[in-house]
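DM between two lab members

TW: hey, do you still have the Tetraspanin 13 entry open?
JB: yeah, one sec
JB: this one, 204 aa:
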Amino acid sequence: MVCGGFACSKNCLCALNLLYTLVSLLLIGIAAWGIGFGLISSLRVVGVVIAVGIFLFLIALVGLIGAVKHHQVLLFFYMIILLLVFVVQFSVSCACLALNEEQQGQLLEVGWNNTASARNDIQRNLNCCGFRTYNPNDTCLASCVKSSHPCSLCAPIIGKYAGEVLRFVGGIGLFFSFTEILGVWLTYRYRNQKDPRANPSAFL
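TW: and the structure you got?
JB:
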């Protein structure tokens, strides 16, 4: 049987949603691991990661049920949601890849000023204090504060990795964007195929 058949479309769609399920569980596991080992104390960051993981899991669950049962309504909503996710994710991925060093610095500074708990995590893990300037009266959890050596600023340290992280995130985002548009195409084709084992009059 060629891959354009009903069974092949169904199997490909199920495999794609199993991949999304694994990725969603991985995201939730990473967030739990970061909290458990004390690497991340920001509830906002962990909450966002877990929320994305749960959202992706629910999408994959809808896609799996729709593919297994050949449910027209579920497949339609799955296709629409996946298309919207593709548009947002593709735009964000392109933005991550297009940022220059100055824009990266501005973005990091905005994030630094608006997330106190994440800022404390960065200072503790990277052993630095302050972003571009450091006031000794400010709270800093880095171990260098207790030593006689002056603490390094965090901006240069973060800047070394910011470009690589953004390119990595943008690349991963682009990869999954193409899997999402593939999922939209598979769903559209699968919805319009008749199950050879079903009653033809029950197709609609």
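TW: got it. Residues 67 and 159 are 45 Å apart (CA to CA). The chain is about 75% helix and 0% strand.
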